[in-house]
Model the fold of this input.
Amino acid sequence: MSRRERTARPGVRKSVINAVQNLAIILLAILGVGLSAASGLLPVDDLLSGLRSRAETDETDEGYTAAASPFCIVITPQDGAHCAVMYNGAELAETYSRFSSTLGEALGSSRDVAAVSENEWRSALSGRGVYFDFYNDFLLSTYSIWLGTTMTGEASGHTARRICLALEDGEVALYYVRARAGDGQYYYRCATALPPDALAALLESAMPNGAEFNFERTESFAGVDPYFVLTEGTPEIYSASSYNSLPELGENMAMSAFGMNSYLAQNYPEADGTVVWVDGESTLRLGTDGSLHYSSRQPESGEEPRLGPAAAIEFGRSIVEATLGQVSGDAELQLTYIWFDEGTEEEPGTESYLLRFSYVLNGLPVELAGGQNAAEIRFVGSTVYYAEMLFRSFTRGNSLENVLPSEMAAAIAESRGGGEPRLSYIEEPEGVAVNWPVK
Amino acid sequence: MDTVKAKNFIIIVLLLMDGILLALFAADSVRAGTAESAALTGAIEVLNESGISVSESIDFSHGAMSVYSTARDEQLERQHVTALMGESEYSDQGGSIITYSAVDGGGEATFRGVGGIQVQLMDWSPGEDFDAEAAAREMAADLGIEVLTGNGTAQVNVNENGRGTVVLFCAHEGVLIINCRLIFTFDEPSIIIEGTRPLDTVVSGTAVDVLDAPTVLMRFLEHIRELGQVCSQISSADIAYYFTATAAGDGTLQPVWRISTDTGTFYLNAVTGAAEENIA
Done:
C-alpha cells in the first residue's frame, strides 16, 4: 500500500462515519418530531388546519351565492294533498336544499315556453309537484344561476316569484306566474328535460299536513290572494328582540366596505349625534339610530363596465354581507327588489342598478319601522354611488308568540278588502312583534 | 475527532429523548384505549337502561375518513358511455342534463349533473349461462362506477329466464355510499340501468375526525328521543358516505354513521353528529 493510499483510507473512513452520524441525527430528529406530534406535544393539527384553511381561502369561489330563498314551499305528493313548509327557517332551508338542484335542472332545461290559462296554473298547483314562493320577483335566469345552471331561451328573461314543478303526463313541467307581464299573459308553462322519476322520488318523502291554497277552499276568502297558503293550526313563532348593531361593525369597517380610506377620511359630528366622514367625493353618515347613508359621485358613461343581473346581485349581496350581514345576529339578509335603470335618451350614461335587501328571521320577513329597507344600494358597474342601511341585530327568543292562525288572518284580510296576509316580524318602538300585515 | 464526539453526544441525547417520547406515546395510547373502551361500555349501559340493547357483534372500528369533493367530467362521461354502448350522439338538454343516443340505435343514456343516470340498452338477450350479477358488474365497470364487491354486496332477483333486477351499491375506496346505487333491470330485449352515481372524479379530499362510537351512540339516543321513536336493539353500526350534489355537477361525499335498528335505519353526520334525514 502506498503512503497516499494509507492517508486516503482514514479520510474515507472519517467521511463514512460522518455521513452515518449525520443520517442518524436526521432520522432521530424526524422520529422525535413525529413522536412529539403523536403525543400531542407539538400542535401539528392546528398548524395543518391553518395551512389548510389558508389554501381553501386562496381558492376563489367563482360561483354566485343565492341572494334569496323561498319563504314558502308546498310539496304535493298526491293530487290535492299538500305539505306546506313555512314559518320555520331551518325546515325551509332543509326542504329547499332537497329540491333546489331539481329546480335548477328544470330551469336550465326548460324549453317551449307558452302562455297558459289561470286554470291550468291552478291545476298544476293542485297536482303532484312542488311549489316555491320567493315573495319577490326575480329573473328566472337569475334563479338558475344561483342554483348552478344557466338558462337560455325566451323564459330566461321572465321574472317570477311563484314557480311550480308539476308532474304531468309522464314529464315534469315548469310553471310560473309572470306578475310584471304587461300584455295580460301572466301564467306560463315550459317543458323540461328533468326525468319524472327524479321529482317523484323527492315528493314521496313528504307527508301531507292539511295545507291548502285559498283558491282550493270550498269557500275561498274573497279578495284574498288566491295563492295564499292556509296551514292547519297555529304557526309556532318564537319571540325576537333587536338592537342597533352599527357600533359593533365600527366606522373603519363601514368605510372600508365602500372603498373609503379611514386614514385619510375627515370627520365631524352633527347636532343630532350623526358622525359624518368625508373622503374626497365620498360621504358617509353614521347615525345614532343605526342608520348609514353613503353617497359619492355617480360614474359617467363608459367609466364602468356594465354588469349582468346575476353579477350585479352578487356585487350588491357581497357589500350587504360585508356590512349588515356581519352584525345581524340571528337574522339574515335577502334580496327583495332589483331594478336596472337603462338611462334616458338625454342621459344615456346613467345606467345603474338599484337593489333592496330586507332582514329575514327564522323564515319570516322582518318589517322595519316606517317600512324602511334593511339596505338600498345604487351602483354603476362595480362602483356604489348611493347606499342607505339600517343596522339591526336580531335575537330569537325562547318563548312562543301568540299568533293568529292563517285562516283567521285571511278572514280579517277579507273583511278589510282583501290582499295577501304575510306573517312577519315587525320592529316597533316597544320591541319586535309578530303580526299579519296585508300586502 | 471532536466533531465525531460531539455528534455522538447529540445522537445519544436524541436516542434518550426519542426513548422517552416513545414511552410517553405508548402510555398515552394504552390510556386512550382504556378510556375509549370504558366510554363505550358506559354508553352501551346508558342505552341498555333506555331499553335499547346493542349487538355484541358490532365493530365500531373504521379507517381514516375524509370529506371528498367530486365533479362531473363530461369527457370521461363520454368515454364511459362509449364503452357501454358504442359511439353515440351527444345532446345537451340544459340544466346539466345530457342525453347520449347510440349511433347504431342500440341504446340511449341520460346523465344528470346531480348524479342521476338512466340508460336503456336495446337488442339484448340473456344467452346461455347468463350471470346477471356478473353482467351488471361489467356494465358498472364500463360506466366507471365503483361498486361494493364481495359476497352479499348485490341484491339479485333474476329468474331462470334471465329476467329480473340486480342492485349494485356504489362505493368509494371500498366504503359504501348509502344513497348511490344502480338498478339493472333485465327484460329482454332491453336492459335498463337507473340510479345515482357519485360523479366522475374526486377533486379533493379533506381528512376529518369522525365522532367516536360512544359519542355516536349518545347522539343516536338523543335523536330518537327527539323524534319520539322507539327501538329495542341496535343491530349494526358502520360508517358510510352520503352523496349530495348541485345541478352544476359539484358533489360532496360526507361521512355518516349508519345505525340499523329493529325499527329502522338512522343516519348521523359522522363529523357533527347531526341527524341526516330523508336519505333515500
